[in-house]
UniProtKB/TrEMBL annotation, chain A:
Stated name of the protein: Geranylgeranyl transferase type-2 subunit beta
A single BP term in Gene Ontology: protein localization to membrane
Lineage, broadest ranks: Eukaryota, Fungi, Dikarya, Ascomycota, Pezizomycotina
Enzyme class: transferase
EC number assigned by the record: 2.5.1.60
GO-annotated molecular function: metal ion binding; Rab geranylgeranyltransferase activity
SUPFAM superfamilies assigned: Terpenoid cyclases/Protein prenyltransferases (SSF48239)
TrEMBL record, chain B:
Membrane-spanning ranges: none
Native species: Oleoguttula mirabilis
Pfam families: PPTA
Protein name (database record): Geranylgeranyl transferase type-2 subunit alpha
SUPFAM superfamilies: Protein prenylyltransferase
InterPro entries noted in UniProt: Prenyl_trans_a (IPR002088)
Keyword list, A-Z: Prenyltransferase, Repeat, Transferase
Similarity field: Belongs to the protein prenyltransferase subunit alpha family.
Lineage: Eukaryota, Fungi, Dikarya, Ascomycota, Pezizomycotina
Ranges where the record places region Disordered: 1-26
GO terms for cellular component: Rab-protein geranylgeranyltransferase complex
Reactions catalysed: geranylgeranyl diphosphate + L-cysteinyl-[protein] = S-geranylgeranyl-L-cysteinyl-[protein] + diphosphate
Amino acid sequence: MSLAAGPGRGGGGGAQGQLPDEMKVVVEKHVAYIQSLDTRREELEYHLTEHLRISGIYWGLTALHLLGHPDALPRDGVLDFLFSCLHADGGFGAAPGHDPHMLYTVSSVQILAMVDGFDELEKRMKDGKLKVAKYIAGLQQPNGTFAGDEWGETDTRFLYCALNALSLLGFLPSQQADQPPLIDVPAATAYVKACQNFDGGFGTEPGAESHSGQVFTCCGALSITGELDSYLGEEGKDRLGAWLSERQLPSGGLNGRPEKLVDVCYSWWVMSSMAMIGRLHWIDKAKLTAFILQCQDPEEGGFADRPGDMVDVFHTVFGLAGLSLLGHPGLVEVDPA
Amino acid sequence: MASHGIPRVSGTLVDKSEQAKEKERRQIERYKAAEAEVIDRIRVKDYSATTLQATSTLLAQNPEYYTIWNHRRLVLQDAIAKEPTRTQPDDDIDAADLTAARLANQTPAQHQIALLLTEDLAFLLPLLKQYPKCYWIWNHRAWLLATATQHLPTSSAVTLWQGEMGLVTKMLGMDSRNFHGWGYRRTAVAALEGLSGGDVSLVEPEFEYTTKMIRANLSNFSAWHNRGRLIPRLLVERQASSEDRRKLFDAEFELITTALYTDPYDQSLWFYHQYLMSTLDTGNKHSVSILEPCTHGDRVRYLEQEIESIREMLDGAEDCKYIYQALLEYSMRYLEMEVEAGNQKVTTAERKGWLEELRKIDPLREGRWNDLESKMKL
C-alpha cells in the first residue's frame, strides 16, 4: 500500500461538515490516539508488542497521512528510531536489538518512502539502498518465493513484501534494465500463479485455501510486475471478484474466508484487491462505510476489528485506508497496490 | 497492538487505580528482567541449558517475540553441533539411554538430539493450544521437525512426523478452520510421503479425514477445499478407469446435494459445488480434471442435471440467493455450449426471473448483478 500522488480530498475533516455525527471520522481524536501510542510505556502491552514496533510506526504514519496530518509524528524521531533497527546486512528488525526480518524491512522501506528519507539512508549507510535491496533479494528461494528471514519460513506475504519494497527502492529488474537482475521475477510470478485456486482466490502456498489476505498479496505482487490484467483476463476477474464480493455480510462488514467473522482489516485486503481488478462496485459501499465507522471509538480515537472491541493501530490504519478507498470525505486518497 | 475480539472498556486508561498501576509496574519490571536475562546471555554466546530455560520463561509470556525464538534455535543448534563429537559413551549418558538409542537405531549422539528436540516439541504444546494462530510457534515447530529429519535416522523422523499428524488432528478438532493447522497438516503429509521414498501415500486416509471433518460440520470450507485438492491424485493412485472416475464424480455430487438440502444458505457448500462444476469448465485455468475423457456431451449432460437439481432446491428455499446465483452461472455456461437445446431447457424469461429475485434478496451486490445482466445479454 502506498499513498497516491496528486491532490487528495483534503484533510482536517473540514469536508465532512455536512455529514451526520455517526458518519464523521473523528480526525483529531485519531491523530491524538496515534500520537499517544509511543507514550504508553507504563502499560505492559506496550512492552509486549515491541516485536511489532516499526510496523506500528508505519501503520500510524500511514494513518496520519490518510488523515491529512502527515507531520503529526516528528520526522527526525521516526528516522532515528528506524536507523536504530537497521542491521549491517541491510535488514531491519522490529525494534533495536531485534533480528532482521522481511516484514520489518518492508515497513522500514515504506516509512522511508513516505517521509522522503532515502537520502538519509544513503548518508547513514554506504550504498544503503542497494544493501537493503540485496538483503531482500537474498531471501528469494529457488522455487521463486521468499523467506521471511534466514530461518526459512515462506509465505506469499513475504513475496509481496519483497516486490513492494524493491519497487519503492527502485531495484526491481525492470527499473534497473542495465544491471544484472537482483531477483528472478518470472520465478516469483510463476509461484504466485501456482497459489491460485479454482475459486479464483489465492493461498499462502500452492495447495492452500483461498484467503483474502493472500488474495491481496498475490494480486499486489502481480500488479507490481504488471501482469495482473493479462494474467487474470475478464473471466478470471469475474471469478475472483465474485469470491471477494461474497466476503460482504449483511452487517456491511467483510470477512476473510467463507463462513468466518467480519473484521475491519479485511476492508483493506478485500477492497484493495477488488479495486485492483476493477470490481469495487460489486459490494455495497454505503453499508461498508457505516460498518467501518461503527468500529471507530468516537471518544478516544482509533478503530477496532468489530464494533465495541478494543482499538489498535493495525485496525486503525486499515479502517481509514478502507474509508479512503470508499471515497469518504475528509481523507487523502490511497493507491490499492 | 493488533487485538482481535477484545471488548472495549471505555476510559480504562484514565481510571486505573494507584494499586493497579503499581501492579502493572511490577509486571513490566519482571518482563523486562526476563528479556534482559536472555539477551545478555546470547550476547556473550552463552548457549547453555540455563539460557534455553530463560527463553522458555520469556516465550511462555510472549510467544510473538520472534527474535527470542531465533535465540532459542541458536541454543539448540549449538547443542546439536556438539553431539557428534561425543563418540564414546560418557558420564552424561546413562545405560538406559544407550539401550533406547540402540533400539531406535540411533547413535548415542542422535539419541541425545532426539531427546532435545522431543523436549522442545513438548514445550510448544501448551503454547500452541493457548495461541493457535501464532505464526512463530508453528514456524518453530516446523523447524524442529526439519532439524530432526536432517539429523536423525529416517525411522525416528517418521515417528516424530506421525506424532505431528496426531497433534494437528487435535488442533483441527479445536478449530476446524485454523489455516495454520491445515497448512501444517499438508506439510506433515508431504514429509511422511517424502521420507518413505515414495512407498507410502497418505491420499486415501487424508481423503477419508476430510469426509470425517465434513460429517462433523458441513460448514467447513477448509475441509472441502482439501478434499478437492486430493481428488485428482486419489484417482491416479487408484488407477481409476473412466467408469470409476464417473462413479466418484457422481458420488461427490450426491454428497454435496444432500449437504445443500441440509443448509442451502451455507456458502462453503456452494463453493464445493462450484469446484465440481469447474472440472467441466475448460475456461478455468485452475480447474482440475475428474472425468477422463470429458466430452462435450458429458459437459452438457452434467450442466443439465445440475440445473435441474438446483431448480428443485428452490422449493421451500425461495429466499436463498445462492440458488439463483448457481442457476444463472450454470445456465449461462450451458447456453454457451448448447444454444438450441438450451433455449428449451432454460428460457430467457426464467433467467430474467432469477436475476430479478437475486436483486431483491441480495441488494448488497447490486453492481455485480448489473454486470451479470450485461454479460448474459438478456
